[in-house]
Amino acid sequence: MKRTVAIVGAGPAGIYAADILQDRDPEVRIDLFEKLPAPYGLVRYGVSPDHPRIKKIQDALHDVLENPRISFHGNVTIGTDITVDELREAYDAVIISTGADRDAELKIDGIDLPGSFGGADFVAWYDGHPDAPREWPLEAESVAVIGAGNVALDVTRMIIKHAEHLDHTDIPDSVESALKANRVRDVHLFIRRGPADVRFSALELRELGAQHDVDVIVDPADLELDEHGERMVKQFTQRRIMMKTFTEWAAIDPASREASRRVHLHFYQQPARVLGEHAVTGIEFDRTQPDELGRVTPTGERVTYDVQAVYRTVGYRSSPVTGVPFSDETGTIPEQDGRVLAADGTPIAGLYVTGWIRRGPIGLIGSTKSDAAQTIGSLLDDLALAAGSEERAARQAAAAEALSERLRQAVTWEGWLQLDHAERTLGSVRDRERTKIVERHDMLHHAQASTEATLKVGTR
Fold this sequence. Notes:
Blueprint: E1 4-8, H1 12-24, E2 29-33, H2 42-45, H3 52-55, H4 57-65, E3 70-73, H5 84-90, E4 93-96, E5 102-103, E6 116-118, H6 119-126, E7 142-146, H7 150-160, H8 173-180, E8 186-190, H9 202-209, E9 214-218, H10 227-235, H11 237-250, E10 261-266, E11 269-275, E12 282-290, E13 296-305, E14 309-312, E15 316-317, E16 335-336, E17 339-341, E18 347-353, H12 356-359, H13 368-385, H14 390-406, H15 413-428, H16 440-447
Parallel strand pairs: 1-2, 1-4, 2-3, 4-18, 6-14, 7-8, 7-14, 8-10, 9-10
Antiparallel strand pairs: 5-15, 11-12, 12-13, 16-17, 17-18
């Protein structure tokens, strides 16, 4: 008897899981359910538009979804259009792979003032997420970015970049217009630990300094390493490369800096509070000092900067999925080897999890492959032990038919290809690969332009 599996979330984690599953089980049928009208998740809506090399991952994900045993069903919201329990009735197994879609909290005074933003929200805006606002306030001339990872670099780079250098990207027209009017002059990037402990990638760090008409400023005093820092630089090539980059920037003669925009890197600074009564007017930091393991503690010295906007990029966090256990403490679904656990710690039959909602927002896009492999291994082990029956098959078929009738307006794979074609056509007018269509109703118009979408789930 052929098995059917539902995957909730059509980003990299879900698509990799589908690819591994269809490779290990030559007869399985897989349905991917996605709340957005478009697939690819983080690759489409989390990668900066000036990173076409990373966006090319979409080509590999596209090839997976072309498999006739894998079906895409977009514009379907779990908890509203269908429930996880309904999926469990219609399928032999359900995998949750909804990722991490919101900003981790930064609990300091003033963080909720107007002019204080989450980095994930900003990324969603400039990547044209259909649920993001269409406008973004870019009136600040001096901006603070808090964080020490690649998202902090992306946010810093997109704020400081001159808009004309995004002409070749898939950036939405509304975003391009806003960036052209951007008044920014200085972006201050604040890092709690020292230069040997940043989580940037060396390549993205170099990109920050390679921008046209942008100076990167580093205080040489911040680059003095203690024993821990020296040990990190000796042991890890990436950190050694980044220290070399920091040192080169610190050695630039201030008199030679003539760019109209500047990025200032500040190490050993921990955010204490955002200043302002009705809007952001500044930000205050505690200077920190490291111990022998690189952990930092406040020194008691406070430093204040005049800024008119603050962006926090201190991590992502997953949102709960209706009908699935969720830990507010960890921001993940409780699991063991990819099996979702009930409140009493026992596995819930037929329910699995993979990706960032399983392990937290750790690692690069490609690292979700090994995570998916473990989950698929657990799923196949369980299915091998499960006893099938004609009665069970009949119940599944009836449940699948009921879902098909309710989801007739979902976006099919053919619908996505229509939307994809519309975006490429818009892009060709401007000699670019595509221009994103961002309004949900416009996306649905193109995805369902030729005919009403017909969904057939759980087909055996």
